[in-house]
Amino acid sequence: MNEAAGSGRRLALCLLCGLPGAGKSTLARRLRSSEPGRSVLVVTYDDVITPEELGRVCWMSEGSTETGGEETSLWKQQRRQLLLHIERLVVAFLESSSLVRPDSGSLESWQRFIGCLEGQGLVSPAKPDVKTPKHAASLTEHKDLCLVLDDNFYYQSMRYEVFQLARKYSSGFCQVYLYCPVELCLVRNRSRTFPVPDQIICHMEERIEKPDPKKNAWEQNSLILDGSELNAINDSSVIDLLNQALDAPLTPVQDDREQKEHDRAICAANILHQADKGCRHLITETMQRIKGTISVQEMKMLAQKLQGEKSKLLEQLRQTTSLGMHDAIDPMLVFKDQVDGIVQPYLSNKREQFS
User: Fold this and answer.
1) Taking a C-beta distance cutoff of 8 angstroms, is the pair 14, 147 a contact?
2) Which of 41, 129, 163, 209 would disulfide-bridge 156, Cβ 3.0–4.6 Å?
3) CA distance 285 to 303
4) What is the C-alpha radius of gyration for the chain, rounded to an integer number of angstroms?
5) Distance separating alpha carbons of residues 225 and 222, to the nearest angstrom
6) Coiled-coil segments, which residues (predicted)?
7) Phi and psi (nearest 5°) for 121?
């Protein structure tokens, strides 16, 4: 059973995922107010990870190739830090112990996290003494806790690391994915105090990896809802999902075969992502370099050929990585040679016209 020794406490982690403006926060507020007999705690990533203005910078760097990687690194670092805070909360709840700040990470991040918990009545500041570390907090009495994490979670890997956390501590796990037309998400987002830039939402919509219970056994306990009609959502279906998660805690993995298989899949996805990103950058750079030297019609034909070669390369790379094979040759070097071979005839024809 999902119970800490002697405490009788049960815990479930629930992910609310989807595009900004899909209705996640609205649904989270309703879940909290509709469950007076159970503790439903909501951790909204955007409220904890970083102040609003810095968060916007990080979103820009994550979704755009026009900014440097420093902000993206900070954004990822703060996500990892928040997950560590959540792990401390899981342990403290199951063991009926004080919630203690990790040794690493910023004090500001920890204070925002504690502020989120205090605002929902889960913790109260602990009185420092000889036995209580500084920056600790005491949890209020609760038997069952449904910890709802409100974030976009648009990559499968983001969700899987929370699943691993739930499994590590024999807790329940479930997902609620809100799908919503990107046009409506943009309209809703623009009314926010700190809206996410439109291009970032469009970027996420193109790359979001929706839960796939048929493909991933760990995503079986998932619910997909239409966020375009929030009033039509039956909250009881989500509450039933939370109950199922509480009643069916995960079992810690006994061997590392599943982990190795997933790590290989993540590695393959990263290779494809980096190759796609590099190819797009090289195509853009090439088109800018050749712009003005050939006609508009030739530019269109060239762009089509380059995109075609990119698709072929990515498909070949997808096939080899799916089999666990990794070519020693850098795919970007191969693609650069292909680009040079495609561009050269256009430049040669132009030089012949002026000779």
Assistant:
1) yes
2) 209
3) 12
4) 24
5) 10
6) 296-323
7) 75, 15
Question: Which tokens is 201 given?
Answer: 């939402």
194's CB contacts (< 8 A; 6+ apart) are 52, 53, 55, 56
How crowded is residue 91: how many other Cβ atoms within 10 Å of its Cβ?
Answer: 15
For residue 49 the two structure tokens come to 């990870």
Res 59 pLDDT > 50: no
Q: How far is CA 250 from CA 11, 209, 245, 312, in A?
A: 11, 23, 9, 41
Q: Is 12 helix (H, G, I), strand (E, B) or coil?
A: strand
β-sheet bridge partners, residue 172: 12
Give how far Cα 34 sits from Cα of 112, 230, 283, Å: 25, 15, 52
With tokens 């191969």, the residue in question is 334
Model confidence pLDDT, tens digit, residues 78-102: 888 999 999 999 999 999 888 988 8
Pairwise CA distance, residues 279 & 307, whole Å? 9
Region label for 6, one of left (φ > 0), alpha (ψ between -120 and 50) or beta (otherwise):
left
Task: Give CA–CA dist 191/248, Å, rounded.
Answer: 39
Phi, psi dihedrals of residue 176, rounded to the nearest 5°: -125, 115
Whole-angstrom distance, CA of residue 233 vs CA of residue 94: 32
| d(C-alpha 42, C-alpha 194), whole Å | 20
Exposure string (b/e) for 318-355, b if CB count within 10 Å is 16 or more? eeebeeeeeeeeebbebbeebbeeebeebeeeeeeeee
CA-to-CA dists, residue 337 to 39, 311, 312, 330, angstroms: 59, 15, 14, 11
Q: Which helix (H) or strand (E) holds 263?
A: helix 257-290
**Are the beta carbons of 160 and 262 closer than 8 angstroms?**
yes
